[in-house]
Amino acid sequence: MERLTKNRERVKEILCNSDHPLTAYDISKECPEMSLTTIYRALDYLVRNGHVKSFTFNEYTYFLPSERHEDFFLCTSCGRFFQLEHCFASSYEQNLREKGMVPKDHLILITGFCSECNEKLHLQTQM
């Protein structure tokens, strides 16, 4: 396996230290000395080589370390991620195994309004 360059290592480190998925732009705020092009190249390499996984939602691509098996709630109003405490996929994975399938990974993303945004929305509709 090829050794990670300094830039790739830095991008992976930023992702590993985050408690939620990040976009390339988020990473650039943590690492302003690195151009967005360099960040995208590093992310491309990291995804292709299994260090990082990605998903796209509402035209944004998010990245997180491959070894993480966390599931998230994304507030579609404020854009904040909240880590879910319980893994919903384990019962599905067991069911798949019973059918002879071999699940390798999963990502559950539930979207909606967080409590703060829901309260603001509720207050606005009462006016």
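(the above was protein one; protein two follows)
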Amino acid sequence: MQYDIITEAEMTQHFGAKRFSKTAGDWLDQRIRAFAPDLILCCRYSGPHANRILMAGKKRMIPVVYHIDDDLLNVPRELGESKWRMHNSRERLQCVRQLLDQATMVYASTPGMYRRLKTLGTRSPIFCGGIYCAARVLRPATMGGVQRVGYMGTSSHMHDLQFVLPALEVYLDRNPRVIFELFGLSPVPEVLARFGDRVQIVPSVNNYGEFLKTLADRKWDIGLCPLAHTPFNAVKANTKWVEYTACGMATVATRGLVYDDCAAEGRGLLVHSEEWADGLQMLTDNPEIRYRMTVDAQTHLMLNYSENKLQQQVFNALGQAQKIHAEVAGKQASTPAVAFDDAGRILSA
């Protein structure tokens, strides 16, 4: 499959604050014309020129698919003031609304996201897949004592980590040989500063493949998946469970949100807000339980979250978009739809 990627960052690099200008829109049109795509896929896009993207689809008579994995119409302030201001600007909200209502099809990341989009009155047809993130096992489960516990996230996730910090203090006091690492999140929270070099920062890694390799190389025994019970988090994907499991660690996750299914039946430890310290201690005191939990999680990962399964799901989604487009255009009988095979090639008559 051939593809061309156009990002808002690239547009900003060329045009700066004038990325919403007609000149920038003309540049985008030219990029699309030059590549001559059979389908346009917008991934959680909220940038300039949504109307140009939709018009390019109409002119070329091809589908425009909008993939969305967060409620971008309701980004909360707790993600940080700058992110809140950016995502709630009039231009970005208009872009998201326009794509939700005028794209050929919206590709929702999770069943929760699907339901939220319905609640938001999305006018375009919505496709929802069974999985959002896939991975292969990079580090098999190992038996042994707990040496490292970690949390992976960005600055916008600090509010999720915040409510488990008291439990982390208790746990680190109880287990003086355990190191706690923050991957991609800095600085060290003030309440943990007293632990000195037992709390460490791992710098963020932008390349996703390198990020997973780095995460596996940290050799965490337990990975934390705290989520605040907010409407925004209610439609999140279970990405952290997938990544932690692939990297050979047991997962402790907030109960009552997206991890309830993937971490069920002993594939993770689901806890309420007051159970974090005891849950961490139980896994620390019982290496056999922690090992079996990680093995079961990795088996579930290989069976249900494989890269092949996700690839097939994406191809099915794009094929569905082609079908919807053909039906809307009234050409289903005369124009064969484009299909996507397992090798990732575009097949057309």
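Reviewer note on protein two: The CA atoms of residues 146 and 221 lie 6 Å apart.
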